[in-house]
Every structure is written in C-alpha cells, then in structure tokens.
Automatic annotation (TrEMBL):
Its cofactor is Mg(2+). Belongs to the TRAFAC class OBG-HflX-like GTPase superfamily. OBG GTPase family. Residues 167-335 form the OBG-type G domain. NCBIfam families: Obg_CgtA (TIGR02729), Obg_CgtA_exten (TIGR03595), PRK12296.1 (NF008954), PRK12297.1 (NF008955), PRK12299.1 (NF008956). PANTHER family: DEVELOPMENTALLY REGULATED GTP-BINDING PROTEIN-RELATED (PTHR11702), GTP-BINDING PROTEIN OBGC, CHLOROPLASTIC (PTHR11702:SF44). This is GTP-binding protein Obg. InterPro entries: G_OBG, GTP-bd, GTP-bd_Obg/CgtA, GTP-bd_prot_GTP1/OBG_C_sf, GTP1-OBG_CS, GTP1_OBG_dom, GTP1_OBG_dom_sf, OBG_GTPase. Residues 1-166 form the Obg domain. Residues 361-443 form the OCT domain. SUPFAM superfamilies: Obg GTP-binding protein C-terminal domain, Obg GTP-binding protein N-terminal domain, P-loop containing nucleoside triphosphate hydrolases. Keywords: GTP-binding, Magnesium, Metal-binding, Nucleotide-binding. The keyword Cell membrane does not apply. It comes from the Eukaryota.
Length: 465
C-alpha cells in the first residue's frame, strides 16, 4: 500500500509560431510591400486545484504535459493562431517545486506555487512569443525587408509535486495510541483499526459535524517514533501533513507506563521536524480510560502536565466517553486561529500570492541582450558567450535569410559582444559560440567574414554543406 502524495512531472510551454516573409501581390497594385504576418504565441502551462482529486495517483503514469504550439504567420498580414493552453489539475494542498538537478529555470528546489483553495489556478510557465513577419521589420530605409523570426521556444522544466493534506485538525501520537479509533468515533470515517502498532499506514480524513452549520476536517496521521524527523518509522513520511493543520490533538496511550515521556517525545519530534509546529495550538487527549490501568495513572498524568501549563482531557475512544469534550476544545482553538487570521494577526500568505512564477520566468527570458558573460577555453581556443537575451535572439533568428545574418552581426556589434571578445584577447580563427550559433572569429567586421554564403531566391542565405 502506497500513499501517492509525491510526484514528478515534466511540463513544457508551447513554442511560438514562426513569422513569414511575404509580399502583397494584387492586380493594379505595384510595389504592394511586405505582408508577412507574425506567428502566434505558444500555449501556457497552468496549475489548477481540483476538489475532485484527493491524491497524486493520476501522475503515476501521466507524466508529460505539453501546451500547444502557436500557428505560423501567413500572407496578407494574417497572424498565426494562439497555442492551446495546458491545465494540469492537482488536489488542493499541492506544493510545486522545481526538481533538483533540473535546468535551474528559477532555482532548484525552490517552492514555485502552493494551491490550497479548490478552483485556484496559477500560471506556471508562459508560452513562447511568436516570431515576427517581414511586415514588422518595415522601415523608411528598408521598405521591402526579406527576413522573419522563428518562434520563441517555450520554457520547460521537471517539477516536483507534494501533497499536504488540507485539514483543520491533525491527530498525532505514538503507534497504537487510539488515533484511528478517535477518528471513527467522531466522524463517519472508517479507518483500519487493530490491536497492534502501525495499523494506520496512510493518512485518513474525516469530517466532524458539530452543529447544523459548523464542521471541521480532521486528519488521522500514522504513529510517530523517536527519531521520526530523521526518517525512522512512518512518521517522517507524513509529518509534513501536520504543517497545514491549524490545531493538533495529541492522543496519549493511557496504558503506557511512560505516558508523559511519550507525550514529550512526540512534541520534540514535531519541533525538530519544523520549529513552527511547536507553536501550533494543541489539545492533549489521555485515551483508554475504560482500562483500569489507564484510569489509575490519569491523575498523575494530569498533574504533571498541569505543572507545565497544559490542561489535559481524559477520554475513551472505544466507548466515545469524553471524546466530545476533546473535539469541542479543538474547535474553539480552531475558531480562535481563524479569528486571528482575519484580524491579520497570524495569517499565512500563500506562496502563490506572493510570487507570480509565470511573470518571473517571462522576466528572466526577456533579459536585455547587453547582459552577457564571456568565458574562454584556452586549450581549444573556444569562446562561449552566455546570456538569456542573446540565447533568445539567436534561437529566434531565421538563418535562411541573408538579412537575418546581417542583423545578427549588427546586434553583436551594438550589444558590445565583439568589443568584449577583443578586450579579452580573441584571435583570428578562434571558435566563438553564441547561443546556438557557432562561427570562426574574423578580425574584420565585414559581413562576408561570417562564412561562405550565396544569395538565393528572395534573399535567402544558403549555408554550404
């Protein structure tokens, strides 16, 4: 039995459509001018919280998600259609991170989005921009441009999904303390109950009705052992679910000879896993009062916790005696937490609200061409020019047209790449790599020195094979 609360998916935004080189050709209209349309923008990748989902099981086999590509531009100034967006549906409570060892698009392991509300939709990756047609390059000096751009490639990444249960109250405690029995006594949930430790292998959720309009969601988590924050037992796998709970209920096994020590051990494991858990409001429920041994130790346990400033409740989950008092106390703490959040006292700000991932990705990809770095391999005399703006410009350049090659040379000169290479000691014949373009360096700025070329129909640039 496995709990599918972790998944790894590949997402890719749609590529932009290519621009086109075309000219208006109509009867009695000489010199119609350029009419090549722009390509359509690629589709976006959205993440949406779907209340009908309760696990990440659908991502066990469905791993790859790709948005549609934008259509290419056409003649008569017609732009290409937009690419189809891709919506990845996840259960509420899902956290999205960039996978470790990926491309580092935003930052390896950083939290990108957190979806907690059903129906919440966030932009993860924006689609690529459509390439411009030759009508966009028309100027007063160049009235018949013969160049167009390729569509921008869509962003891509491997993303890690992590599901944290969205519950109001979390039940924690050592194995076989009666957590599942308590959940079955106060709700309609029917978890597996048996007289041996680690009966609960997966988190269980139950809705507890308190009145006609009042209810709360309670989560029963697997038992915790000493060292759970280091991965011992099943606790570490599900400790993260307690981070979303507003209130915790500590169920203590009354038949244990070390009930106080077990309670303190659970508190310590929560604090070691996440120090913020130590400050969450909690209720202590001393269970199994229907057993004489537990009833005999109740007063000692109560006085010990009272000396620490903690009020404990006694109950018997098997007979449901005292369970309502525990639930009412947890509900009152929950309401006080919600009131504090409404007043702005301790409300948590969702990561998706504070960080617009799609805008960050777009801003990084739209970096100025003047921002670049130059590195050199002295052994092979290879120069590498890196920069997000140059990478995008090189990728979108359509090398089939000679004017695009001339434009590329002009951009290298205007952005300071040529001067930076000269300042660092580039020599005649050295290999220079700019994005996807590789050429041999010539000391002259003449366009013919980029390589052997010949002009074909419509000014196309044909590279020798």
């Amino acid at each position: 039995m496995r709990c599918f609360d972790r998944a790894k998916i590949y997402v890719k935004a749609g590529d932009g459509g290519n621009g086109v080189v075309a000219f208006r050709r109509e009867k009695h209209v000489p010199f119609g001018g350029p009419s090549g349309g722009n390509g359509g923008n690629g589709g976006n990748i959205f993440i949406e919280a779907d209340s009908a989902m309760n696990s990440l099981l659908p991502f066990r086999r469905n791993v790859h998600f790709r948005a549609g590509r934008g259509d290419h531009g056409q003649g008569k100034g017609r732009a290409g259609a937009l690419g189809t967006d891709c919506v990845v549906k996840v259960p509420p409570g899902t956290v999205i991170r960039e996978a470790l060892g990926g491309q580092g698009l935003i930052g390896n392991g950083d939290i990108l989005l957190e979806l907690t509300t059903p129906g919440q939709r966030e932009l993860l990756l924006p689609g690529g921009r459509g390439g411009r047609g030759n009508s966009s390059f028309k100027t007063g000096r160049n009235k018949a441009p013969q160049l167009a751009e390729n569509g921008e490639e869509g962003a891509e990444m491997w993303a890690e999904l992590e599901l944290k249960l969205v519950a109001d109250v979390g039940i924690v405690g050592v194995p076989n303390a009666g957590k599942s029995t308590l959940l079955s006594a106060i709700s309609a949930a029917r978890p597996v109950i048996a007289n041996y430790p680690f009966t609960t292998l997966l988190p269980n959720l139950g809705v507890v009705p308190l009145s006609f309009e009042a209810s709360m969601v309670v989560a029963d988590l697997p038992g915790l052992l000493e060292g759970a924050h280091q991965g011992i037992g099943l606790g570490h796998e599900f400790l993260r679910h307690t981070e979303r709970c507003s209130v915790l209920v500590h169920v203590v096994d009354g038949t244990s000879l070390q009930a106080v020590q077990e309670y303190e051990a659970v508190r310590l494991e929560l604090e070691l896993f996440n120090p913020a858990l130590a400050y969450k409001p909690f209720v202590v429920a001393y269970n199994k009062m229907d057993i004489p041994e537990a009833a005999e130790q109740w007063l000692t346990f109560k006085e010990t916790l009272k000396s620490q400033g903690v009020d404990a409740f006694s109950m018997s989950a098997a007979t449901k005696e005292g369970t309502m008092d525990v639930i009412v106390a947890a509900y009152h703490l929950l309401q006080s937490q919600k009131n504090m959040s409404f007043d702005g006292g301790s409300g948590e700000v969702g990561l998706g609200d504070g960080l617009e991932v799609g805008q960050v990705v777009k801003k990084m990809r739209d970096a100025p061409i003047e921002q670049f770095t130059v590195t050199c391999d002295k052994h092979t005399r290879t120069w590498q020019v890196d920069g997000a703006g140059l990478q995008r410009f090189t990728q979108m350049t359509n090398w089939e047209y000679f004017e695009a090659v001339r434009r590329f040379q002009h951009v290298l000169q205007a952005s300071g790449v040529n001067q930076a290479l000269r300042d660092q000691g580039v020599r005649e014949g050295d290999t220079v790599v700019v994005g996807q373009m590789e050429f041999n360096w010539k000391d002259s700025d003449d366009i013919a020195n980029l390589g052997d070329w010949k002009r074909g129909p419509r000014g196309s640039k044909v590279w020798p094979h």
